[in-house]
Amino acid sequence: MENDQTRREFLTAAAVTIAAGTVGYTQASDAQPAGTGADKPMPKSADTVKIIAVSCSPRKGKSTAMALAAALDGAKEAGPRVVVELVELADMAIDGGLAAGLPPAPGQKDDFPAVAAKLTDPAVRGIIIGTPVYFSGMSYLCKAFMDRWMAFRKDYALADKVAGVLACGSARNGGQEVTIRSVQDALFCHDMIVVGAGRPTSRFGAVIWAKGDGDDKDSAANARNLGLRVAKVALALAGK
User: Fold this and answer.
1) How buried is 32 (Cβ within 10 angstroms: 0-12 exposed, 13-18 middle, 19+ buried)?
2) How far apart are CA 119 and CA 152, in angstroms?
3) Are strands 49-55 and 206-209 parallel, antiparallel or unpaired?
4) Nearest to 131 by CA among 88, 188, 192, 194
5) Which of 39, 40, 66, 148 is the most exposed place for a label (fewest CB within 10 A)?
6) 146: in domain
7) In whole angstroms, what is the distance from residue 66 CA to residue 12 CA?
8) Domain range enclosing 50
9) If we measure between CA atoms, which residue out of 116, 109, 128 comes closest to residue 56?
């Protein structure tokens, strides 16, 4: 994604990606990674570094998910060994109360274990958390999701995985950086390697303006640079 791409083009392009399959946005088996020819085989699973992005927006396929899709496009630019997946929590049942030991309601569905299994997979070397901004804070869904990470603390199952954060606000200065830092605080508690958006933007994380005027170049650059930074560090740590 070019840095001079407008926000409208950025979101439109990401929307096309999501329409093709959101939770199934996995560049591991059905497409060639950037920079490889059609005659070249996909990298073996043992050679891959997987980056997962999790959208904590209660609205599926909207700005947060679109921005995360763009971040994953940036991650793929790090090299052919990078594979990516976008997971949206919008249609999932994730009860934060279970983290406090509260009993589930009779017949209550719980989708957290399935997502947890994805995140703790040894092949996953990087995780990008995306949330919309509500009153300078993360969404209720993001908070419930992060509270459930209590399950990872027993053996620090996410330790040394690279983590990045993306926040999507309705104004250019809508509390995105405050929200990013609050999510990062939770990530630090899990001994993860937390990175910001890479150069040249180099900020806390990816600051996204969800209702720009069609000429917001920063959102596109921030999303791309965050994904690229997470993937580059993950590759370096994996010795790839």
Assistant:
1) middle
2) 10
3) unpaired
4) 88
5) 39
6) yes
7) 8
8) 7-28+46-238
9) 128
Q: How would you classify the pairing of strands 82-88 and 25-26?
A: antiparallel
Domain with residue 143: its CATH number is: 3.40.50.360
Distance (Å, whole) CA 238 – CA 240 = 5
Q: How far is the C-alpha of 45 from the C-alpha of 72, rounded, in Å?
A: 18
User: Using the 8-state DSSP alphabet, how is residue 149 labeled?
Assistant: G
- pTM value is 0.82
- Residue 32 near residue 40 (C-beta atoms within 8 A): yes
Instruction: Count Cβ neighbours within 10 Å for each residue of 72-83 and write b for 16 or more, e otherwise.
Output: bbbbbbbbbbbb
pLDDT in the model for residue 195: 96
Domain count, the chain: 1
